[in-house]
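Lab notes, practical 5.
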Amino acid sequence: MTEPMPDAPTILAGRYRLGELLGRGGMGAVHLARDETLQRDVAVKEIDQPPGEDGSAAARRTLREARAAARLSHPNVVQVYDVLQLDGRTWIVMEYVPSRSLRQVIAEEGPLDPARVARIGMELLGALRAAHRGGVEHRDVKPANVLLADDGRVLLTDFGIAAMDDDSVISRSDVVVGSPHFMAPERARLGVSGPEADLWSLGATLYAAVEGRSPYERGSTMATLTALATEEPEPPVHAGPLRPVLDGLLQKDPERRIGIEDAERLIRQALDETGAISVPGNDEEEAAASRIPAQRTEVLPGDDRGEGAGKNRRRLAVLGAAVVVLLTGGLAWAVAGRDSGDSDQQATPPAATAQVTSPAAPSPPASSPTSAPATSASAAPSVSPSVSASAAGERPVLPAGWEEYKDKSGYSVYVPKGWKHTQEGTLDYFRGDGKVLGIDQTDTPRSNPVADWRNQRDARVSAGDFPKYDEVKIASVKYFQKAADWEFTFTRNGTRQHVNNRGVVVSSKKAYGFYWQTKDSEWDDSRADLQLVFDSFVPKK
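Output from the prediction step:
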């Protein structure tokens, strides 16, 4: 276990041995710790004292947080064990949940499939139902406070600015506490709250999960708050059957906003429409017993492990202000999103789509984002346009550290051992070592792959989907019957990334798309790996 910061005590209250820093949020830092008395791992949160606030006020706020969370006993709420006040500092001891936050998942994997988001939403509604029944408002529901546990649970954490119905409002009169990108309009405008505000924040959180950004994401906090006060949220384009629940939760007027029961009903309808398994009943215990693990939710209905095989649906998407393109016969997929310059803003990775040729660039499926930041291109050489060795009947020898992946649809390809494989409809993703490989396919290929990429680029760049976009190339390559590459770089969280999309026609009835992303600094070293993918690829016979 990594040692804590030098200025922090090693053991709290003679019991909790502090370890590595797990993360830092707007209310304080969280450490992994060991409860030496009960011999279990716990999470210990050190509460920051806001500027201008005296220690006693911070302590009172912390006690409210601890009392608010400790009142709740629910499988979708992180349990609070203890609260300590030592040497002018306040610490909260909580259940340790090996997990990633929803914010991290979106940042690493891109916007999520509506079926997965629906399941997450159902479990969060259970947590909010329990909290509101106990007179507790969370007041800071956002992706960073949603944990997707390794064991499949979905938990709401950090009641750091929570209020109970028998307490005074926690925020000072001149400061609105919370995250602007996920703050209900009535809180931002008037500083008032209520259970309805939590539901608005939940809607904004689910919106961010499927769209890759919050509904009022702007370039600054002030611009976000202004838009929140004066504009309607931009309609989601990837929500699919989740659109009705998002529209209902994001009503600006709290009196018109849907409640928990209506939200649950609409989410169940969405799960039924996607062919996914829904959580039965409204009873928290029944829901907990029938919970679908979060890791399983990456398995979409098109996967033969799910119950909705054949029910995948691709949706129309809006590219730019008025560009609507058909998905029919097209191939599109993505694994990234937008840069975030605001610490409270949803951080999502950039996106690019790889598609198979069509006269009008197809839109992403429901699980894909529409945005893909890019930065200036480096001088690194592009991917080799040489004909695939496998296409010429000379498949390379399987090298050490690689394995052959045989897809149920009939194609096979070499992939690095140990990379995580997920299947999202027709898309196969392989992730590892900070890199991403995606492979998609269609049975109805169209002509002119170069024109496809140009159409896609023009629509997305004009719509602002690729900030600082700088193109390496869009060009035809010699690969199977017909192919084209779209290559560019972008920046995410201060790190340059490099992408190559290849659309490939292998026959009159089959086409594939390949997406490859690495850090720009590693592009040269990884080009041989990408070439091995191309050389080893064998399409369906």
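Observations recorded by the TA: Confidence is low (pLDDT under 50) at residues 1-6, 166-176, 277-309, 311-382. The chain has eleven helices and 22 strands.
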